[in-house]
Amino acid sequence: MAKTWEELEDIQPIVLKMFKNSMMKNRLAHAYLFEGMKGTGKRDASFLLAKSVFCQSPKQGYIPCETCVNCKRINNGNHPDVHLVEPDGLSIKKAQIQSLQEEFSKTGVESKKKLYMIVHADRMTVNAANSLLKFLEEPHPETIAILMTEQAQQILPTILSRCQTISFQSLSAEKMIEKLISHNVEPQIAPLIAQLTNNIDEAIEYSQNDWFVQAQKIVLKLYEVLKKSPLEAMVSLQDDWFKHFKEKEQIDLGLDLLLLIFKDLLYIQLGKEEQVVYLNEKDRLEQFALQSTSRMISEQMTAVLEAKRKLHANMNPQLLMEQLVLKLQEGSLFV
After folding, report:
1. Do 132 and 252 belong together in one domain?
2. Averaged pLDDT score across all residues of the chain
3. Is residue 267 part of a domain?
4. Residues 37 and 161 in one domain
5. CA count, 13 A, side-chain hemisphere, 277
6. Which of 55-59, 62-66, 84-88, 139-143 has the weakest average pLDDT?
7. Which of 75, 169, 233, 248 has the fewest CB atoms inside 10 Å of its own CB, making it the most exposed?
8. Does residue 226 share a domain with residue 88?
9. 228 contact partners, CB below 8 Å, separation of at least 6
10. What is the residue range of 76's domain?
11. How many domains does the chain divide into?
């Protein structure tokens, strides 16, 4: 989490420039909404802003020193005037917001300043959101709120209107590949990983992870047996897929890997080979691309995207995958 100003400036230069201007003019807002895709640095930027606010000797007046007691405590998650709220299970409950309000009704432990962050603010229950709204309508002096979300459209308009929205941009695939290669990730695997995450640390972890290597093999095998018979595909699900992809996030990643195979097939058919990401499998994919129509591949991609939607709607993962395999069977989409 201890991302420095320089590291974040390289990823989100516009956001960091805005922070700098606000701090130099002493005009920080009392509430921010950080919105953007997963891995774009929202959480790191929240903690960076907290350090800038509480740092005892900021460089140039706004860059946290990273060495004073306040910077260290924020990095370790134990500063008494910096509070983090995350979903309890699937949602953020009213009791969590009330507990935060009680904390803020006390005088600051070491100064008048207080800062709180709410991760996945879109997951607040209606009651929690209404409680927070009252809090935002009558902000305590020298209090800063930071709400983070990947789904800004899910947040109450009345809350949005009381926050300054800061949009975190995704790194371009080219920039991500460049960064990964500079971190010694193999050029053959970097384009694939760059399509799966915008988070450098997560991407590097994938590149060093045996589970991820195995995941690619299982997904490719599933695609191959799909072309043979429904029975073989179901056996592959039981023998390989369900044993490897257990958690919801893992299943989601597996579906993304499957989706990228169909995308590569489409790129090959369109003559855009330079956009293929399964570089180690390019020869095989060129053969597969000859055996499918563009319409069929598009329909199959739609089926995978629908499975991802159902997964997030908490459909039973085993039933979901069995249904998907039947849909993906060659020709079955057009019966």
Report:
1. no
2. 91
3. yes
4. yes
5. 21
6. 139-143
7. 248
8. no
9. none
10. 5-168
11. 2
